[in-house]
Description:
Helix content: 25-40%
Number of domains: 1
Mean pLDDT: 96
CATH architecture: 3-Layer(aba) Sandwich
Number of strands: 6
CATH topology: Rossmann fold
Largest sheet: 6 strands, mixed
CATH superfamily: Phosphoglycerate mutase-like
Radius of gyration: 16 Å
Strand content: 15-25%
Oligomer: single chain
Distance between the termini: 32 Å
Number of helices: 7
Amino acid sequence: MPTLICLVRHGETAWNLERRLQGHTDVPLNPTGLAQAEATARSLAVHRFDAIYSSDLQRARQTAEAAARRLGLTPVWLAQLRERHFGNFQGLTYDQARARHPDAFRLFEQRDLEHDFGHGESLSAFAGRIGRTVAELAVRHPGGRLLLVAHGGVLDTVHRMVRGLPLQPPRDFLIPNAALNWIEYDDGSWRILSWAEQAHLEHARDELPDA
Length: 211
């Protein structure tokens, strides 16, 4: 039996609105994000899940906790599901990062696989972390139904992994805050069932690299 996984990006934060790079910075949901979390929880309540795994950063935790209350499950917090660490860029807006670190920002825009922002995490290392974690969870729950709450960069990486896409080209799919994204794992094979479901949301911002 295949393993069904619903991936949810956390709700909106103030830093999302400010176009500020979050990474591992522990930013909470703003009022819109909290409302999105509750709307997503209501939409998930019609489904059965065996487990909830979430990034341990506050914006993901708050989103997962709303769903957990509806589903009667206890979330498992995993640092392995955190957003990419943006090193010297964390806490900066995109404009600030471009002005203060022009050469590094150019590599960031080019999605250079080995650039780590200075004491941060390269794209290749980040993708490896996320790919291993999601695969391990799928194998751990054969035939199960999992809810994974994480970040935009995490969903970007998983989507590319499932479709067999390279990491460097520009993204050609949406990653809205608090939308539902369904994938399936079956004996080593992945496929996307549905992506960016947001009928339950009044409005959701698309994913930015700060996630």
